[in-house]
Amino acid sequence: MTDHVQEIKCALYNHAQGQIAKHKTNVMLMMERSVGVGEHSNIIETIEKELNEIAKYQDQLTVLNKYFPSNNKIMEGIK
Q1: Which of 4, 5, 26, 68 is the most buried (most CB within 10 A)?
Q2: pLDDT tens-digit profile of 3-53?
Q3: Which residue in 56, 49, 72 sits closest to 16, CA to CA?
Q4: What does the pLDDT read at residue 39?
């Protein structure tokens, strides 16, 4: 596999991982400090939206690993 193909796959992986971390942090903050989130009157609905975003990016990681397997150690262990 060419180096730039591996770089693209790593970029996709890193982007998805970063998005998961971002949305996970949002959920944790909303759960811990829901009183301070004035623009989100329905906290459960807002958390559900964040969870859907996490699921979207987790699905991307799953597809990437299933259909475009890599020998890269960074991407091992992501199912």
Answers
A1: 26
A2: 899 999 999 999 999 999 999 999 999 999 866 555 657 889 999 999 999
A3: 56
A4: 61
Calculate helix-pair angle for 3-32, 43-67, nearest 10 degrees: 160
**CA dist., res. 68 & res. 62, Å (int):** 10
Which residue type does 50 have?
E
Separation CA 35–CA 32 (nearest Å):
9
Distance CA 19, CA 26 (A): 11
User: Count of CB atoms within 10 A of residue 35's CB?
Assistant: 7
Q: How far apart are CA 19 and CA 58, in angstroms?
A: 9
What's the rounded Cα separation, in Å, for the pair 7 and 17?
15
DSSP, collapsed to helix, strand or coil, labels residue 31 as: helix
